[in-house]
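Final report, closing paragraph on structural work. Over the funding period we assembled a curated collection of sequence-structure pairs, and we close with a single example.
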Amino acid sequence: MYPAAFEYFAPGTVDEVLELLARHGEDAKILAGGQSLIPMMKLRIASPRFLIDVNRIASLTGLRQEGDRLVMGALCRHAEVGRSGLVRLRLPLMADAASQTADVQVRNRGTVGGSLAHADPAGDWPAALLALDTTVTIAGRDGLRTVPLSEFIVDAYTTQLGPIEMVTEISVQLPKAPSGGAYVKFEKRAGDFAVASVGVQVELAEGGQCRSIAISLGALGAMPTRARAAEALLLGRAASPELLTEAGQLVQAEAQPFADTRGSVEYKRHLAGIIFRRAFAAAVDRALGREVETLHV
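Its predicted structure, as stored:
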């Protein structure tokens, strides 16, 4: 199908984008990678009268280290994250997510900022980045504000973004050594949305105990969440088979999936427990300096 008629703008600055949003209100949509918006427009699920293409705004591009944080412009492409040596070395969880996002074409066009703003419950970046100390910078008519990712997404396809606001940057804390992370996703076929996904980020103490741990759940509810009870169980303790079994049960209990064509509630909860253990094992191996390939299930 063809999208409904629309007027196209290609502003060169963030201020111009905000002016266009203020002028056209809810009839306007921002076009970044377009990997979600364009298919919706073709199906006429979305029919914006005004399309604001932000791809010419240089300040929204790139990936860099600033002190102890990784900073990505909102237009940073999935493939760009996956190619980054800094990401592969310090944030392998993000390298996992980048390599498992959709297909090659989407990875080369889709953007991290667009993925977070879209807030798909089965999206890879919201789930993966929730396991890290991630903040989102938002530009509005009153200036910039920065919010934790855990507060930015408020429901399925719903964020804190106001009608005259846009995402400009995403910032992620670089973990302290020895630490490691992994993102594991189960999909029915290559490039599909997740049936269930789990991100694990762990920092180890000298005795192998979890000095800090974060467990994020994707496609297991209306929005990505943290498995807080499982985190509390593992914090300060060295993993044993029995402890991981108990933690996996807590992950299953904390998951709140919906039954759909990808599986029943019971099936998805079962998957959550399995892929949690795989993600945890890979994260610990990486924290210990062992090589672990990007994970596919």
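The mean pLDDT is 95. The first helix runs from residue 14 to 24. We thank the funder for supporting this effort.
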